Amino acid sequence: MTLRRRLLDYGLVVLLLAVPAAMLTAHWKDPADINAFDRAVLRVSSPLQAAVSWVVEGVGGWWNRYVWLVDVEEENEDLRAANAELRRQLAEARRRAAHVDALEQLAGLRRTTAAETIGARVISSGVNPHFRVIRIRLDRGDGEVAPGMPVIAPAGLVGRVQRVYGRYSDVLLATDPESAIDVVVERTGGRGVLRGVGRPDAYTCEIEYLERGQEVAEGDEVVTSGLGGALPAGIRVGRISKVVTKSYSLYQEVEVEPAVDFGRLRHVLVVLAPPPPPDPRAGQRRRSRPAYSLGPYR
Questions:
Q1: Which of 34-43, 72-81, 260-269 has the highest mean pLDDT?
Q2: pTM of the full structure
Q3: Among the CATH numbers 3.40.190.120, 3.40.50.1820, 3.30.70.20, 2.40.10.350, which is that of 113-271?
């Protein structure tokens, strides 16, 4: 190493040590003791100090924001997991509440039904629009249910038992094209036969053989007539949604929207026997006959 290079190195080291020392000395002095040299040092070092402070604060702020965002992301993950768990619990609570509400409605229907009934749970449903059938599992025993027995829900008529397999039964829905139910329009008394339409996109029925002279309108309630004894009278079937009267036809074209939401049906009642007929002498006072044809002792 040459003498010139050595002198340059020593001078650079002295300069690097002297400049910070001069800056620190000028900053630490009392303002009353500052001389012209100190003011010159402060004037030169202030922009440099501001630039260094800006860089340091920027890097520090970026680092703090990065650390804060990492913490926030972890907190967000925890909050998302807690939110998902709460949503799951809420959905489960709603499902249980709906289940309890359905059972309460079914219990109320059983209390108000005069005939003997047995509860059942829907376990499957057909997807073929031309064969509207559901399968149910009876709540108790077997041998009590037979084909042809009515199946009802709190909203109205579901259908009739088609086949029985021990504690399981297939129910032909009222919306099946093969179903035929004698019904009556509750407001006017017009009678007809309810059949399923078999649409792939909806559960829909129509009333056949409803004479053109019978007064019906959209919104009229349709109930079972009870004729033939296959179904009890007065079970709600649905509501008329469309009426078409043609001048060349003897009968009206009437569509009925079922009262039961078959897509959400979960619990039903099977009517085991028709209700007993009313006593024609109910309310009349009758005199008791003597037992064994014996009169009072005289």
A1: 260-269
A2: 0.62
A3: 2.40.10.350
